[in-house]
Amino acid sequence: MKIIIDDKIPYIKGAFEPVAEVIYLPGSKTTPEIAKDADAIVTRTRTICNEKLLAGSSVKFIATATIGFDHIDTDYCDAAGIRWTNAPGCNSKSVEQYIASTLMVLAEKKNWNLQEKCIGIVGVGNVGSKVAKVCGIMGMKVLLNDPPRERVEGSDKFVSLKTIMDEADIITLHVPLNMKGEDATFHLANEDFFKNLKKIPVLINSCRGEVVETNSVKQALKNEQISAFVCDCWENEPDLDLELLATTEIATPHIAGYSKDGKATGTQMSVKAISDYFGLSLDDWQPSGVELPESPVFELNGEGLSEQEIISEAILHTYDIRNDDKLFRENPDLFEQLRGDYPVRREFPAFTIVAKNISERTIEKIKQLGFNI
Questions:
Q1: Theoretical Cys-Cys bridge with 61: which of 40, 89, 220, 340, CB 3.0 to 4.6 Å?
Q2: For residues 284-290, average pLDDT
Q3: Looking at the annotation, which residues are catalytic?
């Protein structure tokens, strides 16, 4: 069998070679001619898997090593009998880390006590659930909005979007991009959304660019309907709106889920999916060579620090979002390159803290975040 693999997928080389012919290509170089006699494609988001690429090919299975699958024409694939799969939740802890770093930077800049803040989480799937846990550990009031889950599970733990718009000091979006239907999320944050906010919250978008309407959020910032906008996902990326970039509080080039752990997990899920479909017996395959962080063991001395300051030091040691923000603002035209050359970022469980002068209560919270002590 023959498998085409996007050469940007990390840690996958060697996975299929014992059982298949493998061709590694940049996503933009996968053409109908190349795909014609392939059995499977393993991709990331830059390979557009549609009728133009797949018609007349022998492709039977597409695996994307990403949560999102907007680049796969699922209707065409379903009609053509081509199975496809994504990697739900693979980078959820990476986005959790991104939001945690964001909150700590905002708290420092705005002199916030996070225990006094209410955060509204819109979309409580793999990512939103982890963000909710982190915010709970920090002592924040957490409001959850997820209409599809609420219909199945009942309304006990969920609130309406209006409640979040009324009560939240921070609103963070973790929804899929749905273009239509009762759960449509395209331009969820539009002019009406901003006009109906009761407080002047911070808005964070780390899910899909098209969930936030660009002109509306620019106007909302000018009108002081929101106090700040944190943006990782942009409409029309990589051709983003430079005026919006200039007015964001924190700006990053769609890298919230770019930890090495998340990429390795997405790769592993894709290999297993293809193995299961074709009976390749690769169920025990594990990614190897995942890079270690620069300082995986570090001392944290809590003397004279508040609990929030201690937790902030721990989180920002693993990932300080300000570095990505600075690099992106200096090089907005290098959107794709900044993603492609993204440096090593490891999640909380890759780090061990040598704790000094830290209470057991705070140590327990740090453990709950995933750190080793």
A1: 40
A2: 93
A3: 208, 237, 254
